[in-house]
Amino acid sequence: GPAPGPREAPAAAPAPARARLLLVDDEPLIRAAIVRLLAGRLDVEEAANAVEALARLDRDPMPDVILCDVTMPGMSGPALCEEVSRRRPELARRFVFITGGALPGEPGGAAVTGAEWLEKPFDRARLLDAIEGIVGARDER
Length: 141
What we know:
Helix content: 25-40%
Shape: globular
Radius of gyration: 19 Å
Largest sheet: 5 strands, parallel
């Protein structure tokens, strides 16, 4: 009889979608360093200030995590979080703040309910833990 044809390999399961992160920091070197830390782990969009972040959120309203500097010219990170909370309340719990000095409850570091704060410099493991905490909490809902 005829020789059997080649067997088709089973279709591979689609790769899980990578988490999407909006990085908001006015310092280009900090943004570049964070992008390098997260390379291959997340899809990262960058914004140099709160106005850019709000414009990106208007175009892509559902990042999984918003990693945001606390102290920026114009609008601070906590002020950005408050504005995002007014516009999109479901995004308020997706903020992780990064800071070189201002901490919750200190001048310039208004407390934001439930947000994690990372003191610069931070290591990759700490950053990934904070991100996973938000992505995991979102996935549990």
